[in-house]
Specification:
Strand order of the largest sheet: 1-3-4-5-6
CATH class: Mainly Beta
Length: 129
Amino acid sequence: MECIALTGISNHVLRDLTDRVLRTIEIRSPHNFVSILHAEVGASVFLSSVSPDDITAGTTGIVARVQRRDISIQRMVQSNDFFFEEREMMMARVQLVATGAGRVRRIVRSEIGFAMVVSVDEKPAYAAR
């Protein structure tokens, strides 16, 4: 199956997702933010702790289904006697449901500015344990 890859996810989050099955994560990294913009609710995504440059055939991770996706802007204000600065940062909150373990078969697309898409062999949750 082909799915969007979310990479560089902490091992703690991956463990929590497999233990609790349902998990909401915040995505702020640019490469994952671009990827999640292309993932619709109901789509399958592949999550791995490996950095995007190191994803290769054989990389293991978790396959999850997107339950909910919210895109928002955070505004941060900093000031003192000499300056006033306001910054905005876009982030995504994604609720995921683990469906099983996965292993990358091949990389379909990996270009800057586009979602990373990988072909994954999936083991369902009941067979993965």
